[in-house]
Amino acid sequence: MTLHMNLGKDSYDIVMERGILAKAGEYLNFNRCVLVVTDTGVPSQYAKTVAAQCKNGIICTVEQGESSKSLAGLEKLLQVMLDHGFSRRDCVVAVGGGVVGDLSGFAASVYMRGIDFYNIPTTLLSQIDSSIGGKTAINFGGVKNIAGAFYQPKKVLIDPALLETLPARQISNGLAEAIKMALTSDRELFDIFESREIEGNLDEIILRSLNVKKAVVEADERESGLRRILNFGHTVGHGIESSEGMSQLYHGECVALGMIPMCGEALRGRVLSVLKKCNLYRRMDYDWERIAAAAFHDKKAEGDSVTVTTVNEIGSFEMKTLRCFDVIDEARKILEGLKA
Question: Which residues contact 40 (CB under 8 A, 6 or more apart)?
Fold first, then answer.
């Protein structure tokens, strides 16, 4: 299955096929120097499989986790390319999850003012969401994704078979982004979560999620309007993520909690049931001061206000500009009022 991202001169294909990793060289131009970036949490054979198909493949492995999305992580990739004499004709390939994709894409965007970048996502979260759309970034000063660039890949290869090595919690982590897209834009996708078995429908979940994001990015590549719906649940979610620390909750688990207060009261029970079905609901002690501080420092905030997406009916949304503290106060009231 091939989807085409229509972005003028920056258009590219998203190819989804089981087993495509082993024949990536048939789809990507590997007849040059290729930096294959992966991390310690990804089976090493994946990067080796890609590098073996390259004329000159150099594997660079970073540590698993958000700590690699840093100036030090960026410097490591740039130094490897410089040491191996990479030119503007060469390329970077991300073989990993969102951290690897964000870091690799940003490195490709700044090396010699931009070289080709390919993305081969290996987690459900990255296959559904972060691998397409062109957002690349690193974290800085304690703020997530604050330094980055819009830099579209030349092609994205999605191999659902790679998900078979993922632990169940990582599958749930990715499902959060699919639920997000279902709530704002795809009633039929939400129906899959409510009434069908998840594991046997993963390919359809990935494809429907990709189609939602593709349509949004094509309409608003630089996030000046519509693309903000992809941040549904992220304002509160990023605050929770910052306050709790990556070691306790995954990104998708934080976004899942962040979506709950952004849903209308009549819908909230159904959303909570789906989150529990996907093992995405957590009872926890919230540090609301730190959550509020993260909301104020979030790149989506403007002064003391932030534009949030709310959902009152599945498949539709409304954008509202609210005071950050009002968003946090409402989230606190709703999340602390939930029963187990």
Answer: 61, 62, 63, 64
Active site residue 290: no
253 flagged as catalytic: no
Which residue out of 144, 155, 228, 234 is catalytically annotated? 234
Q: Is residue 231 among the annotated active site residues?
A: yes
**Strand, coil or helix: 45:** helix
pTM above 0.85, yes or no: yes
Q: What DSSP line would sit under 253-279, residue for residue?
A: HHHHHHHGGGB-HHHHHHHHHHHHHTT
Q: Nearest CA to 244 among 211, 278, 210, 291?
A: 291
pLDDT digits (tens, 9 = 90+) for 235-250: 888 888 877 554 488 8
Q: Is residue 48 among the annotated active site residues?
A: no
What is d(CA 208, CA 202) in angstroms, rounded to the nearest whole number? 10
76, 213, 214, 228: which is the annotated catalytic residue? 213
Q: Is 84 a catalytic residue?
A: no
